[in-house]
Amino acid sequence: MQYRIEITPSPLSSVDAITDRRVRNQIIERLDRLAENPASSGKPLSGEFAGYRSERAAGQRYRIIYRVDEQSLTVIVVALGIRKEGSKKDIYQLAKKLLRSGLLGG
């Protein structure tokens, strides 16, 4: 069963900002694969991100944070960025800010 991929504005601008075409293509390929079986891809997140999943992309460096809407068969990508543990620019730190401000799409 094929799911539809919906990308919210924040991750869409993140993909557009990637200047390395090879990395951008790897991320797009990973997004395409999410459409095939999103519920078993990635890792389920917990805590504030319960209900969301995280998928690694582009050589494990990037993370795609998404949730699956089984009713509409849609994968909603809400955040995408580089995993930099301990950094303010870490994708999970940025997603946490979006979540707390009510801007985490989906």
Written account of the structure:
The structure is a single chain. The chain is an alpha+beta fold. It has a single domain, classed as YaeB-like fold. Helix content is 31%, strand content 26%. The protein has 3 helices and 5 strands; from the N terminus they run βααββββα. The protein has helices spanning 9-17, 21-34, 91-100; strands at 4-7, 43-44, 53-57, 62-69, 74-82. A 5-stranded mixed sheet has the order 1-5-4-3-2. The longest helix has 14 residues, at 21-34. The two termini are 21 Å apart.
In short:
With 106 residues, the chain is an alpha+beta fold.
The helix content, as a percent range, equals 25-40%
> Structural class of the secondary structure composition?
alpha+beta
Note the main sheet.
5 strands, mixed
CATH class assignment: Alpha Beta
Number of strands: 5
Number of domains: 1
Strand content: 25-35%
* Unreliable runs: none
CATH fold-level name: YaeB-like fold
The dominant shape is globular
User: For the largest beta sheet, what order do the strands appear in spatially?
Assistant: 1-5-4-3-2
Topology as H/E string? EHHEEEEH
Count of DSSP H/I helices:
3
The whole-angstrom Rg is 13 Å
Q: CATH superfamily, please?
A: RelE-like
CATH architecture: 2-Layer Sandwich
Distance between the termini: 21 Å
> What does the average pLDDT come to?
89
